[in-house]
């Protein structure tokens, strides 16, 4: 019997997108740190529930979203939130154009409306960086109604059946604010932890097939130590970022490990004591 997820994948892969949309289909490659996490998130997607990915910077939230886009062969539009995000950034804007000697006002659709109409994935990155008063405009898009009235044109827009919303959040970071309950309750929420152990080793070997095993093992040891110190409260979460560890491994193929870790991890930290601790941990593994 075909599974719910595979059935939806087959259906969505039968959709025909034009050449412009094909460029929006993201590559896969996400490795799940929990065996059930990938399938559990896909179930939420198939059931047309907005999905909220919670986790520290570098835990793979964006890569996970890209992998969902690749899995369903479904284009993805990204919105990067900040305090400057406004309705026009989400929905689009009016502009004046000249056609056949006449001047017209035309509405240029933004990522939310384009994704709704075409049945694409809308990825909202760092959603808690946006001002709380900006996001209520999406409430009717995110709940059972899956529609909205464009405030700039008056058009009533009903979402395409394949329309999907994925949001990502870094909790407790500077510049973020707690999501209000009305917005948060519209999402299914999944915690995305860092990769470690054999899964991280598998990812490293896949991305860097020519790296020496001793180098991979050293980076795994450094990563485990960094994650332990983050859990002990001695290092900021950014120090254990998988993205940064992979950057360090990439550099280490061309320079000494200590310098690679310094550039990819330590120098990103604001606290000089934390920078020193990272380098001390690294030195214990570098012969």
Automatic annotation (TrEMBL):
AAA+ ATPase domain span: 47-198
UniProt cross-references to InterPro entries, sorted A to Z: AAA+_ATPase, ATPase_dyneun-rel_AAA, CbbQ/NirQ/NorQ/GpvN, P-loop_NTPase
The protein's name: AAA family ATPase
Native organism: Sporosarcina contaminans
